[in-house]
Hints:
alpha+beta, Muramoyl-pentapeptide Carboxypeptidase, domain 2, 6 helices, about 20% strand
Amino acid sequence: MTRREKTGVLPLLGALLGLALLGLAAPALGEKGKGGALPARFYRAPFALMSLSVGAPDKGWQVRAKKLKPASSLKIKTNSKPNVYGHPSLVLMLQRSARDVSNAGKGAVMLVGDLSSENGGPLAGHVSHQSGRDADVGFYVVDQNGKSKLLDRFVTFRGDGSSTQEPNLRFDDWRNWLLVQSWVRDRRAGLSHIFVSRPLRQRLLAFAKKNASYAKYVDEASVLLKQPEDSAPHDDHFHVRVSCPSSQSEICRK
């Protein structure tokens, strides 16, 4: 082989090797997320460094998810600690709302349950929570004296604010509304749903209508607050969902 031939072959070999590696990378990423290979452009910048939400909440997966961490204003349920990975828009919204309620609500702490597993996909006990855009958030509660109580579990409540499980606990109208209001006001996350039972939805909206500073958010909250049609009524926690990132509409589904 001549020197000229060698110099022509080396770049060709490099190009072929690069294509081979790209071909290997795509299936590997799909297998990790329990989904399939992504469109080729999602293996290149800027997407190659992004968190990706792939598929739908009930049939999806995620890549490079962000982990939610506990803080002074946020506690994670013990049995949910392996499943607190989500898209950054969701994780950062939860952190912001926890701080908002703590600052306005005299140090109250938000209790967070499952988001998604690190790579997404089916999660035990859930139909959704597969693509990093869903989170379960416990209700703020008070005791019979009106003192805020931090629990390590979700507790069910009736529309009159009483608990079906803990007779000494009450639904904390004020702090739960502060939480809903924080979500409504948060324009960065792209919040699309707040699932909660119909009786508690009515209770929250009725509480907010009595206060002029809260009432201005009632219309927006009434659109977001809803009881899901195809699952449990959500009478022991909020279930929040953020929208697909606009840059990922090709791979992300509502």
